[in-house]
Amino acid sequence: MNYETIQYSVDDRVALLTYNRPVQRNAISRLMNSELQQAWQRFRDDDSAFVLVITGAGDTFCAGWDLADAAEWSREEWDTYRKNLHNLAGVCGYTRKTDVFKPVIAAVNGYAVAAGLETALLADIRIVSETAIFGAFERRWNIVAGDGLTVRLPLIVGFGRAMEMIITGRPVDAQEALRIGLANEVVAQGQVLARAIELAREIAKLPQGAIRTDKETMMRNVGRTLEEQLRNEAEATLSMWLRKDSHAIGAKAFKGRRRPEWPNHGL
Fold first, then answer.
1. What is d(CA 51, CA 148) in angstroms, rounded to the nearest whole number?
2. How far is residue 228's CA from residue 251's CA, in Å, rounded to a whole number?
């Protein structure tokens, strides 16, 4: 499928999704949002794609919502927007869905601000350039968070730090992002995408069944009591026992001190 505002490709079981509006600093327009909806579902349902890497073309990851595009919305379109609020998977991409249990890595080059920060928060792992800048810059325009900022940011950096970032809207550089857990790794400028793809290929070589089960368990346990979380984790192990061939292969390889060979990639 051809896209106008994004690029999507799969190579060696790694999917690469690139926000491709560099002149607009990869800000998300209504058209891009529509294309992102399709691309995320495409990755979710593609049996040949094990890991997703998201990045931005040029020197910016994503500058957020395209306010120039948003300014063109007429008052008559408000009812349509209100309906989309319930029917779409998010206003700036696949931000209100939690049905992708494959690993996602963000390769953050340059600014990831406003909805761009929310996009980075969709990833399980964030590899960032030493020049990366994060921030809730929508504060400057009196725009509220609408694509997961107040939900995902506290889970990643903690309530206090998230509250401070959201209230002040100040920029957070790469080293601070690493210190507070917003970034998993900082790399030299120009190396972020190569490092993210390298890591994605390492993950893609692992047996995938347990990875997806454990990610789904973590995501579904958000907001539950400790007892409920532990029960859900225990129940999730049933999937391992249902895949008796994979379980036996792993156990026998461990006993024999050899590398296991997984049929169907451990799925």
1. 21
2. 28
